[in-house]
Write a structure and sequence with these properties.
Shape: globular
Structural class: alpha/beta
CATH topology: Rossmann fold
Helix content: 40-55%
Distance between the termini: 43 Å
Number of strands: 8
Strand order of the largest sheet: 3-2-1-4-5-6-7-8
Number of domains: 1
Strand content: 5-15%
CATH class: Alpha Beta
CATH architecture: 3-Layer(aba) Sandwich
Length: about 300
């Protein structure tokens, strides 16, 4: 059986890494491994107290690591801008940005900006953050942007006529839409980076089925039969969060990744296993939908990228 140590993370000394949602789950495990490999790691998290606890745990496993916390609530565009301003003030370059944080299949709620929470947190917040930090990422040689999606993108469809689920909302359908949006964004970003002549890579990953708090906490399924089902599935089918972080680590550090690549577990049904390149639905590869979503995302967030459109 595979284990996390089967993936070697190359030396990351001198690299600056920003990971959203890094206080737990696969974000924390990726932050730990990257810190142990020598990177300076920024934990960009909604809850500063939990992030501080994660920082302490990382330093316990990597005493010489450079770790810091930046408060970031992706469900608030004001928080995204504040965090981006802080990061821009502190760093002239960012070598790796991991868009990892997310919520899963929650009841419909609206953010302070009036957006449906899953779309706001999983996609729009990361879209804005990436755009606001893009010049810092472009300033770093061999830089990468890794966006965490899910196999749930397969049930997603971008409903431009009701993007915020105001007319009809189903929590899993909205989650699938947000995870499809992650892939459309990652692939479109690579197209625009390439068209602009930038060396930065945009990559997407999914963690398979990994036992994390997302299925059982307030940031994920919280009650009812689905909660019981996901809790049982975690115990029976899920791999560890450390294994679930391997696709992120592979996309972030491997020498043989391909521009615009999508990586996930290579086992049966992509549930568990060592990372390898995987395929997405045709919907995720549709450049027309990606372009339209990009334009809508720019309008909703007010963040516009200085990249060549294609």
């Amino acid at each position: 059986m595979a284990n996390p140590s089967d993936l070697t993370v190359p030396d990351q000394s001198g690299r600056v890494v920003v990971i959203t949602g890094a206080n737990s789950g696969i974000g924390y495990q990726a932050a730990l491994r990257l810190a142990q490999a020598g990177a300076e790691v920024v934990l960009a998290c909604r809850n500063p107290a939990k992030a501080a606890e994660a920082e302490t745990r990382i330093l316990a496993g990597a005493a010489d690591a450079e770790v810091r916390v930046v408060e970031l609530d992706l469900a608030s565009q004001a928080s995204v801008r504040t965090a981006a301003e802080q990061l821009r003030a502190d760093y002239e370059r960012i070598d790796l940005l991991v868009n990892n944080a997310g919520v899963m299949a929650i009841p419909r709620r609206e953010t302070v900006d009036g957006f449906e929470t899953q779309l706001a947190t999983n996609h729009l917040g990361h879209f804005a953050l990436t755009g606001l930090l893009l010049d810092r990422v472009l300033a770093a040689p061999d830089s990468r942007i890794v966006t965490v999606s899910s196999t749930a993108h397969r049930m997603g469809r971008i409903r431009f006529d009701d993007l915020q689920g105001a007319g009809r909302y189903q929590n899993w359908r909205a989650y699938g839409q947000s995870k499809l949006a992650n892939l459309l964004f990652a692939f479109e970003l690579q197209r625009r980076l390439s068209a602009s002549g930038a060396a930065t890579l945009s990559l997407a990953v999914h963690p398979g089925w990994s036992a994390t708090h997302l299925q059982t906490s307030g940031r994920g399924v919280t009650s009812g039969p689905m909660h019981a089902m996901t809790s049982l599935a975690n115990r029976v089918f899920a791999q560890s969060d450390a294994m679930g972080a391997l696709p992120t680590l592979y996309a972030a550090t491997a020498a043989d990744v391909e521009p615009g690549g999508f990586y996930g577990p290579g086992g049966l049904f992509e549930v568990q296993g060592m990372p390898e390149r995987v395929d997405s639905t045709s919907a995720a590869k549709d450049p027309d939908v990606a372009r339209r979503l990009w334009e809508v995302s720019e309008d909703l967030t007010g963040v516009r990228y200085e990249l060549t459109s294609v």
